[in-house]
Amino acid sequence: MDPSRSYTLEELECEVGCSLRRLRINRNLEQAVLAKRAGVSVRALRNLELGNGSTLHTFISVVRALGRQGWFGTIGPVATINPLMLTRTAEPRQRASKPRSRSKNESE
């Protein structure tokens, strides 16, 4: 995948499904065996591999059954050091805030 390109949802689903299918085949597992290990139906696994839409539950179950839980840590690692926290003695943020709206004078 080209990281500089913007992909459609369908393209991403297909790419993820193809990656899981290649991994399954490299491990010499049939769909029925992997589906049983993951606790999902063969149809759900087939839909996931073909990029035909799937549930997050199916995706996580299949990834775990393939022993690739480490993938989840690469999705969006949370920064452990926030540079803003180094400049003040504030408590770490507990929740996100709404974006501030611009006043009329600022937008003109």
From TrEMBL:
It comes from the Bacteria. SUPFAM superfamilies: lambda repressor-like DNA-binding domains. InterPro entries: Cro/C1-type_HTH, Lambda_DNA-bd_dom_sf. Residues 86-108 are annotated as: Disordered. GO terms for molecular function: DNA binding. SMART domains: HTH_XRE (SM00530). It holds the Pfam family HTH_3. Residues 20-72 form the HTH cro/C1-type domain. This is XRE family transcriptional regulator. It comes from Cupriavidus necator. The lineage of its organism: Bacteria, Pseudomonadati, Pseudomonadota, Betaproteobacteria, Burkholderiales.
